[in-house]
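ok so I'm stuck.
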Amino acid sequence: MNNYSYLKKVKILKENSDYRVSDIIYHLGYRWEHSKNKVLSEPKYNDTILKNHLLNCDEDNNLKHLLQCIRNYNNKNNLIKPSKDELVIHLRMGDVVENEWFMKKKYINMIKNLIKYSYFNKPKINKITIVTCFAYQVWSEDSLEFSKDNKVYWNYTDEKQEKNNKAFLNFINKLRKNFKLPIKIYSNTNIDKDFCYCVFSNYFINDKGGFSKLLLKLNILDKKQNNNKNL
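replied:
not stuck anymore, here's the structure
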C-alpha cells in the first residue's frame, strides 16, 4: 500500500460547531455554553456519549462518570476494541493546522520508546493504528453572537486541507521508514467511535490539543480502575 492509500482512508468532518467534548467538559472558549445547550437540545445528539454524560451528571468535568458513559456506549454499540498488542496514536488534524504545535510532537521517538517498553511489559507491540479525522470546528451562524468580532473561525478551506494532507503523508512516510509493523487507519466522522477506541487502548500516544489530552486522561483512568478490580 502506498502512502496515498492511507490518506484516502482519513475522513473529513467539515462542520462540527458544537460537539466539542473537551471545550464543553472544561468550559473553554467563548461558545462552550452555547454548544453545551445545543448538544442537550438537538435530537441529532441523542444517545451520544457527551449528551448522556451531560444529562446524568451535575459536574461537567466528572471524568469517572464520563468514562462510564464511554463504556456504556461501547457496549451498547458493540464496538471493536484495540488488541492488547496494538499501539494507538491519536492525531488531532483539520482546523488546528493553523496552530504552532500542529504535528510537531516527536512521535517517532515516542513510538520507539514505547516499543522498547512493550518488550518488558508484554504483550509486545505488533501493530500500529492511527486514529484521526480532518475535523473543522467551524463557528455556526447561531454561535457568532459569542464571537468577539463576529467572524467565522476554524472553517474548512482547500488550502488548509492541502496542508493537512502534506503533514499526514509526511508522518506516514516517517512511520513506514522507521517501523516494519502493519499500519491501520481508524477514522470516523462519528467522534464517539474514536473516543472509545483511544480510551480502551493498551498502548496509547496522544497529540496536543484539548480533546487528545482528554483521551489520555481517560485512558489512564480506565487502566487504573481495571487494575484496581484485579487486585
